[in-house]
Amino acid sequence: MADRRTILRSSKPQPRVSRRAVLKGSAAAVLGAVTLSSARGMAVGQTAPGASSGPQPKGKVIDCHAHLNHHSRATWEADDRKLIEAADKLGIDQLCCSTLTPHWPASLDGFRECNQWTAEGMQRFPGRVLGYCYVNPGYGREALEEIRRYVGDHGFMGIKLYNEYTCTEPVVFPIVELAIELGVPILHHASHSHYFVEDQPRLTDSGHLAELARRYPEAMLICAHISGGGDWEWTVKAARHAPNVFLDTSGSVTDADSVDLAVAVAGADRVVFGCDSSMTAGVGKIRGADLSAQDKAKILGGNMMRLLGRRKS
Amino acid sequence: MIIDVNAYLGHFAFRRLRHNTADSLLALMDAKKIDKAVVSSAAAITYRNAQAGNEEVADQIKGHRDRLIPFAVINPFYAGWQDDLKICHEEFGMTGLRLYPKWHNYSLSSPSCRELVRAATERGMVISIPIRVEDNRERSWLLNIPDVPLEEVVELVKAHPKSRFLLLNGLGYTGSPLGRKNNGLPSNYAIELSRLSALLANELGQLIANLGADRLMFGTGMPFNYPDPALIKVEVLDASESDKEKIRWQNAASWLRL
Q: Are strands B3-9 and B36-41 parallel, antiparallel or unpaired?
């Protein structure tokens, strides 16, 4: 088994080390990454200057987009454990998790039991699982009460919105206003394809999020999975002029340049690391991106720490 | 050692690729400690005359034959493909094929395709089939190219037991006869890992259990893809070191007769 620190640094297999030891290394892993820019300008086989030595900033690695399993899945408990084990192997300190209903639009009872399960997951994996409160904005007052209950009373770190409504529909505005009041981010499911996605007629894209961001410049809006299958170049460019839209790198697509373009267009301060259950893809894209160690540290956890630090209660 | 059986050179019609020349790909390989890579033309996927892409690859790899192993892209419905195959094999030293049945608009069961498979097999060439080129959801407004159905691949491997097929950029094999134990199929195909999971569902581990590590090969899809996700799969894979060595390079070296 490779150790957590090594996964983010190089491809060389390493002996197993204890979790306690590797937890210390997650930020160092970022800085140890071999950058291609250095390889281009140097002799074959050399690594970046200071890749494994010198001062290394400290920081957590936080997956901004993760999910616990719905309890209708027979193997949900084992599968939740596998998620944590995968995080252990990859050097991920914390996972920001929601539990989603298996069918949409989510019913009131449906998202309520999901949030209860997320709260239980936070107790089963203390310090590792952070919670997003998932709601269907169409439930109005009940949705707002759910958010106050779980963010306010249960310590959830943010709000998860899916595809029940496009984020620019007025029904979503009270949710955004409550997120601003509480000082927590909204992770919004998003994608942009050049065709109508029939099974998601109210799908949000980064252009919608940019429009919402202009209406609510205090909001912290995370555009989910830029590598989730849509045109990531479009997604990144449409978010360029929305400084309070953050780009989540998660998704199963491992297209080269996707993370690099996000940083080039939006800046490293607006890109946040995520997996959305595509674990090696999520970590591999950051390790493979041709970015400075400092920028990778921001993406892997620094930026998310900054967002979490804006909580008002 | 690491051998990547899934790499490319040249331009792709719908997206800029970095590291798509021999020199820049080799620099990327050096940075990632990948020793050798099987390369074919990315441009030939959309060129009408795929042979022009093969010629570009042959030109690019001059002086790099020790590390870059060229495969030919052949469209069995295009005029002169038999001549192209002969030139690619005998003059360019291309030891395998990459087939794009959906991009080139033919069926794997078509007589022309079967004729190409037989001709390549007689030459001892490996026949690789990328199940997809890119995720369909990011497609251009100009086209809609589906993945190659695994059912069509099943019929192909059954019909040509003496051929050697290398399946690239695929997943979901465990839901198909291709990935099941005792599936009654000839063991004439290998599966490349760039889209297989190594954690959570762990399809890679399931395929090792069902087919054996001899049937899996390392590949990245670079420069379409970052190479690191594939590298990390092998790093975190719960398998013996001897199985990992087979996957990293030994199986590919055997198939490619390196």
A: parallel
